[in-house]
Amino acid sequence: MNREYDFTLTFSVPTGLEQEALESALFESGCDDAIIGLGQKGRLALNFTREAESAEKAMLSALQQVKKAVPEAQLVEAGPDLVGISDMASLLNFSRQNMRKLIQTHLASFPLPVHEGASALWHLVDVLTWFSETQRRAIPTDLMDVAGVSMGVNLVREVRRVDHQLQAQLDSIA
Amino acid sequence: MPRKRHANKDIEEAVAYAELQGWRIEIRKGHAWGRMYCPFNTKDCRCGEFCVASIWSTPKNTQNHAKQIRRIVDNCTGNRSAGGKDHES
Predict the structure, then answer these.
(1) Which of B47, B49, B56 sits opposite A32 (nearest CB)?
(2) Is B43 helix (H, G, I), strand (E, B) or coil?
(3) ipTM for the predicted complex
(4) How far apart are CA A54 and CA A144, in angstroms?
């Protein structure tokens, strides 16, 4: 049975492209199930609500359609993936303060962040898995799936840049 | 002058909701019925790319499109009422 997946793709686009032409091309290519954001110079964002067999199929078909409509577009980020404390708090219905406290008290088991510091970031799928496994929170499957695929899309985009020799050396340490 | 209404009831309601929160609606012609502009298109606004969003004349699913519009509005104003500048961290 098909499910509905909610996700956002953000692209970098040449600043010269006309808004109206972008809208038309995206509509024609099948992105009529997304709302398009053009509020930032050189960026194109699409928030999809896509019906598909799987989160993977939903996101791959969306990426294909955008690429077809706007060949110059380069993916910046897929979401929901990278989340900070306030994102987690609002997704899981905590106050920011309580969310922070929860992390502090479960420091040993809470997923490791991607980035630490003033604005720490986590992969959402790790956080959801933690909540489901250690806190017995019911996490909607479609959200879990789409967070997993989003992380995959973002990581693949990055991993292509890794030097193979460096990777081999790092693997031998870990 | 009154704004032209969206032919779909759900979307029209979502657009009216956006206007109530201070968003400006600009009517277009073509696949996009119009565009919505965030009233706080500034640094302390949270919607980022969605500060300007296109509203389809005939989206694939009108109810979902209405939800998308409302979500953009809520993400923006929701953060403001929750204390504005506190973006992340």
Answers:
(1) B56
(2) coil
(3) 0.89
(4) 12
